From TrEMBL:
This is Sensor histidine kinase. One of its GO terms (molecular function) is protein histidine kinase activity. Keywords: Kinase, Membrane, Transferase, Transmembrane, Transmembrane helix. Signal peptide: none annotated. It is an enzyme of class 2 (transferase). Residues 261-339 form the Signal transduction histidine kinase internal region domain. Residues 5-219 form the 7TM-DISM receptor extracellular domain.
Length: 454
């Protein structure tokens, strides 16, 4: 009764491990779980046959030993495949891989030959000296394979390797026990019922502990793989984020370079345009009003000096822009007389604030270019600023009847400047007979430092 209880407990424990690994294999689709499921199935089937069939059937010792050899051979094939999958023997130890394949063939071949010769020769075959030598070599091979598994487990130096080491040691002891059953004198079998019961308890408990150790090793391996996969996923995501940021920075750099090129091209268009108009005005003054021509040259020199300096500046103070626009307006006044007037009302506290250079010149030039200027229809330009941080340049609308060809240099240049500095674009409005452009001023030196860093 005690032996049946032990066998029943053994069948239940091995069956539970078998079912657990079936579920793990189903959900993970990992080959290593399929191999271990096969191994636990072999032991579960062997235990079930012992419980249901072998205990109720009168088998000879030779037949029982033949089944025992076959079960251990199949289990050994699965064990070697486990070692291969767990420790990556194929890549790490290619020569050992060939040894494993040869051992698996022998683990399958000897039981088949042993069973065939038993059928052909009969009960005398197991006791023959030839079979004793073959069986000894066979079991020594299985013990040696367990030794290799132990060696690889120790080299692995991890929790997974530790649990697999324990399972391999227990499997080696199991194989040594089977070897002892064949060499007889060196391993006397128990003869009393109590001794047989104790041997069954030791072997059954050892096998259960062995399978549990292997199962825990595989669970920990799966956990390590999941952690490694999560780390790799995080690394890839971080790499993708970094690559996206680098791509965005590259795009912004290219946009900045494009904007700079556009600005340089626009300034190259503005300066010659202004210079040619000024030279035409100077030409008419030289003969008619030499004194005014001299004053005009002085103002032109001041204006052009500022224009040249502006090419090397990213921002200018409002006070320097207003000083420049007064000199520039003097040149325009020379050309258009009393038909053109300008009014400047700016809060003195805003004089230190910044804006792109030549902004006011481009807006004033734009107003002069597109509107009628005469004594009957004077053009009035106003530059207004207050404490809100905005500057408004506006003029009364009296558009020329003849369509003026425009390349959009003025407003496009200003908008490009503000885009470059990541500031809101100027606001253009047209209402109540006035055209207005509202510009945001850069308020402080801190904003200027941030722009220089970009």
């Amino acid at each position: 009764m005690a032996g049946e209880a032990i066998l029943f407990l053994y069948v239940g424990a091995v069956g539970a491990i078998f079912l657990l690994n079936i579920f793990q294999w189903f959900f993970s689709r990992d080959w290593i779980y399929g191999v271990f499921t096969f191994q636990t199935f072999i032991w579960c089937l062997y235990a079930f046959l012992q419980r249901v069939y072998l205990s109720e059937t009168s088998l000879s010792t030779a037949e029982f030993l033949a089944i025992h050899v076959a079960v251990h051979g199949l289990a050994q094939i699965a064990y070697l495949e486990l070692v291969d999958c767990l420790f990556d023997v194929t890549k790490q130890q290619p020569r050992l891989k060939r040894w494993f394949r040869g051992s698996q063939l022998l683990a399958l071949g000897y039981p088949v030959v042993n069973m065939g010769l038993l059928i052909l020769i009969g009960e005398s075959w197991p006791a023959s000296s030839a079979n004793v030598y073959l069986a000894t070599v066979y079991w020594l091979l299985l013990v040696s394979n367990c030794g290799i598994g132990i060696w690889l487990s120790v080299r692995h130096r991890s929790t997974v390797g530790g649990y697999f080491l324990l399972g391999s040691i227990l499997l080696m002891l199991h194989e040594i026990n089977s070897l002892g059953n064949y060499i007889g004198p060196f391993y006397p079998a128990p003869t009393t019922e109590a001794g047989i019961s104790l041997a069954k308890q030791i072997l059954g408990g050892g096998l259960i502990l062995e399978l549990m150790s292997f199962s825990i090793a595989l669970v920990l391996r799966q956990r390590q793989l999941a952690v490694a996969q999560a780390v790799e996923q995080t690394r890839l995501e971080a790499k993708l984020v970094q690559e996206r940021l680098e791509a965005e920075l590259a795009v912004r750099w290219l946009e900045k370079e494009k904007t700079d090129a556009q600005l340089r091209a626009m300034q190259a268009q503005v300066n010659p345009h202004f210079l040619f108009n000024s030279l035409n005005s100077l030409s008419s003054l030289i003969e008619e009003e030499p004194q005014r021509a001299s004053q005009f040259v002085d103002q032109l020199s001041m204006v052009y000096r500022y224009l040249l300096r502006a090419n090397d500046q990213q921002l200018a103070t409002l006070s320097s822009e207003l000083e420049f626009i007064r000199s520039y307006f003097h040149l325009l006044k020379t050309r258009h007389g009393d038909g053109l007037s300008i009014t400047i009302r700016v809060n003195p506290e805003a004089m230190h604030q910044l804006l792109p250079p030549l902004t006011l010149q481009l807006l004033v030039e734009n107003a002069v270019k597109h509107n009628v200027i005469s004594l009957k229809k004077p053009l009035t330009i106003e530059i207004l600023g207050d404490e809100t941080g905005y500057l408004t340049v506006r003029n009364n609308l009296q558009r020329k009847v003849t369509r003026i060809l425009s390349n959009g240099v003025g407003l496009t240049t200003i908008t490009a400047y503000y885009q470059k500095f990541d500031h809101p674009a100027p606001l253009l409005t047209e209402e109540d007979g006035y055209f207005s452009v509202t510009l945001p001023l850069i308020a402080s030196s801190a904003d200027w430092s941030a722009i220089e860093e970009r």
